[in-house]
Amino acid sequence: MASKLISQMGLPQSIANVFAARNIQTAKDALSYTEFELMELLDVGLAEVTSAVAQISEVTCPSYQTALLLMEDRLHNGYLVGHLSTRLKGVDDALCGGIPSGALTELVGPAGIGKTQFCLKLALAAALPVCNGGLNGRVIYIDTESKFSSTRMIEIGKNSYPELFRMEGKAQEMAGRIVVLRPASLSEFTEREYERDTRAPRKNSLGWHISFLKSLAEFSQIPIVVTNQVRAQSSDVAHYPFEVHNMDQTVKNHEHLESHLVAALGIHWAHAVNIRLVLEAHSDQRFIKVAKSPCSPPKAFPFVVTSGGISLLSDEGIEVMGPEINTIRCQGYDNLVRGERW
């Protein structure tokens, strides 16, 4: 708006001509001066300058809403903001209904902690009929690590929604709503996106991908979920948890490395997502932590992975404070993974 022309501001023609004669063409040009400087430059009275500046400021100023108006709008039009239920009551309550449409939600955690189990259950929930708490929609599942299992997804469905999946052909119908893409590389994924939007620049940077996904979520008003691995980072060198060369040294440095676990894709990616759910393990227990959300304080929920997918042990949640909000832990994680078949 700062570049809007003075001639388009609705000023009296006489004063607009004076601005033009002094080569003050845009709102930015005019508002760069004080009123007394404009009086001297334009050679007009204070009243005319004050009126012109007020008119330019009103046209240029972006529209605003008070917190009260936003609250009332949400109460009246809340039904327009859809959510994909996670089928985890505590998490859904914390997120005011589940995974929101029009936003980017991220799952962060070490390999094997349960991110894929969570994604399989979400994909199934999105394909479910509305009467069963789903979106009755279609799902695009981009499987970059070849971890998608239709067998496991149907198993989750049969154990989570037994009555629905006992119906003839229902499992096939649900599975047919989920499209799985397996790009072999980042460049192939980029090409697939580019084919759908010929105006998009051909860039392989993660910044472009996260921007594309966020714009897609907002424009189409759909929920989008992405996953992120973790890496252990010491003060001078970064290591991934699977980079084990000496077991004695690994055990010795386990607590030190664990205290430096970070999301693999970095701080710029973290700023771009709207909601971050951290899946971690400590004290021989797995937790889903709402680490970033505009509608919830940080909370952690203990969970297990069962034949029906992820299941919370408590819907109450544990309030998370201070540094614990951003930490990612995997203490006792190896024992948990060895003790479960999923």
Task: Describe the model.
With 342 residues, this protein is an alpha+beta fold. The chain contains 15 helices and 14 strands. The chain has helices at 13-21, 27-31, 35-42, 46-60, 67-77, 89-94, 115-127, 150-160, 162-165, 170-176, 186-196, 206-220, 247-258, 266-272, 333-338, and strands spanning 83-84, 99-100, 104-108, 139-142, 178-181, 224-228, 230-233, 238-239, 261-263, 275-282, 285-292, 299-306, 309-312, 318-319. Strands 3, 6, 10, 11, 12, 13 and 14 form a 7-stranded mixed β-sheet that branches. A 3-stranded antiparallel β-sheet has the order 8-7-9. A two-stranded antiparallel ribbon has the order 1-2. The model is unreliable at 235-245 (pLDDT under 50).
Number of strands: 14
Q: What series of H and E elements makes up the topology?
A: HHHHHEHEEHEHHHEHHEEEHEHEEEEEH
Radius of gyration, in Å, reads 27 Å
Unreliable stretches: 235-245
Terminal CA distance: 55 Å
Question: Characteristics of this structure?
Answer:
18% strand; 41% helix; 342 residues; 14 strands; elongated; seven-stranded mixed sheet; alpha+beta
SSE topology sketch:
Elements: H1 13-21, H2 27-31, H3 35-42, H4 46-60, H5 67-77, E1 83-84, H6 89-94, E2 99-100, E3 104-108, H7 115-127, E4 139-142, H8 150-160, H9 162-165, H10 170-176, E5 178-181, H11 186-196, H12 206-220, E6 224-228, E7 230-233, E8 238-239, H13 247-258, E9 261-263, H14 266-272, E10 275-282, E11 285-292, E12 299-306, E13 309-312, E14 318-319, H15 333-338
Parallel strand pairs: 3-6, 3-10, 4-5
Antiparallel strand pairs: 1-2, 7-8, 7-9, 10-11, 11-12, 12-13, 12-14
Helix pairs in contact: 3-4, 7-8
